[in-house]
From TrEMBL:
Domain FAD-binding FR-type residues, every copy: 2-105
Protein name (record): Ring-1,2-phenylacetyl-CoA epoxidase subunit PaaE
The protein's required cofactors: FAD
InterPro entries membership: 2Fe-2S_ferredoxin-like_sf, 2Fe-2S_ferredoxin-type, 2Fe2S_fd_BS, Beta-grasp_dom_sf, Cbr1-like_FAD-bd_dom, FAD-bd_FR_type, FNR_nucleotide-bd, MRET
UniProt organism field: Tranquillimonas alkanivorans
């Protein structure tokens, strides 16, 4: 069963003109459910004009600090506009327990970490920076943070305080796309050229243990390939993507309808809470997640874009293919894990299990 639990808004801080930082507290009986690892996110649900929307926000605090998210208003965006403009202390938000695998579970020791963030992509990385630096007095962190201008930098004061506190161990390089800087290197966007120019004197991928990247898709790809070119192994580069382009829903629906009409169906079994549910689904145009929910199975989901990891399932029988995957590592896919929101049947019969549900 997928559960949402009430969280009370205990503080609101309007960090920039467009961003709000919201502190939340679970009920005493839910405290254990809401324990989290640095880098994880919360998924909220809320009705907007009669439609339930689910949106994920990374936790920007350490486990010791508690639940806090930083939300940047997106022009015309439903949840972020509501959070920035209408959320008040004392309000309740419904949230799923923390999820996500961005971060590291390794011993941080005297190691050196890199972070590359753009805009609101700083949120999970801030949690990692604070946890890594406070967790070991030898650990080091270098952050490259891209924004349009100084006024749009989220957590500007907190990053400054961290710099004061960890003078020799924390280094932050701000890169501004909309404001000229005295040093040309710090103007522009974080792309492959910028990375190569920063590598060496400013950023040392050769001595870094791991790199964390969070920002727009193009920036993440550019930074990752620059890091790989600089010799960093792929499995040491971690991503968190906040959104991805999706194929048009209307087109997919039409393909599913055509498959149904042509009798082009497969037999699907979805195991939820240990109980198997078997139904027929179109071979094309409908994801396993959508088919399961159409058959009243309470399958978990959030972004529906292959970005978050809420809808993970395991293939027990048959073959499926994923349209997009920004959340699972190669070895997890090899082990049979799939993002069911992106998962389409390839064989005549499939069985997928939602584990932990
Ligand atoms: C794992 C994860 C972690 C995340 N962490 C954070 C975080 O820490 N901080 C943060 O700020 N964000 C984060 N995000 C992004 C966040 O979840 C939302 O996607 C974001 O806030 C936008 O949601 P919204 O409801 O405000 O906008 P939406 O209503 O989803 O709109 C998004 C865009 O689509 C446009 N749009 C909406 N409806 C239509 C339509 N019918 N036709 C055309 N265009 C339309 C809007 O104008 C807007 O530009 C995260 C996402 C993921 C997956």
């Amino acid at each position: 069963m997928q559960d949402f639990f009430p969280l009370t808004v205990t503080d609101i801080n309007h960090d920039t003109r467009d961003a709000v930082v919201v502190t939340l507290a679970p009920r005493a009986e839910d405290a254990d459910r809401f324990r989290f690892r640095p880098g994880q996110y919360l998924t909220f649900r809320r009705d907007f004009d009669g439609e339930e929307l689910r949106r994920s926000y990374s936790i920007c605090a350490t486990p010791e600090e508690g639940l806090r998210v930083g939300i940047k208003r997106v022009e015309g965006g439903a949840f972020s506009t509501f959070a920035k403009g209408d959320l008040n202390i004392g309000d309740t938000l419904e949230a799923m327990p923390p999820q996500g695998r961005f971060g590291t579970e390794e011993e941080t020791g005297g190691k050196h970490y890199l972070g590359f963030a753009a805009g609101s992509g700083i949120t999970p990385i801030l949690s990692l920076i604070k946890s890594i630096l406070s967790g070991n007095d030898q650990a080091k962190f270098t952050l490259v943070y891209g924004n349009r201008s100084v006024s749009s930098v989220m957590f500007r004061r907190e990053l400054g305080d961290l710099k004061d506190r960890y003078l020799d161990r924390f280094n932050v390089i701000h890169v501004f796309s909309g404001e000229a800087q005295e040093i040309e290197l710090f103007s522009g966007r974080i792309d492959a050229d910028k990375c190569h120019a920063l590598f060496g004197p400013w950023v040392r991928p050769d001595t870094a243990e791991m790199a964390f990247i969070c920002g727009p898709e193009g920036m993440m790809k550019d930074v990752a390939s620059a890091l790989e070119e600089a010799g960093m192994p792929k499995n040491r580069i971690k991503f968190e993507l906040f959104g991805a382009a999706q194929p048009g829903r209307a087109k997919l629906k039409a393909r599913a309808e055509a498959a149904r009409k042509a009798g082009n169906m497969v037999k699907a079994t979805v195991i939820m809470d240990g109980a198997p549910h078997t139904f027929e689904m179109p071979r094309e145009g409908q994801s396993v997640l959508e088919a399961a929910r159409e058959h009243d199975i309470d399958a978990p989901f959030s972004c529906k874009a292959g970005v978050c990891s809420t809808c993970i399932g395991r293939v027990k029988k048959g073959d499926v293919e994923m349209a997009q995957n920004y959340a699972l590592e190669d070895y997890e896919v090899e082990a049979g894990l799939v993002l069911t929101c992106q998962c389409y049947p390839v064989s005549d019969e499939i069985t997928i299990e939602y584990e932990g549900h």
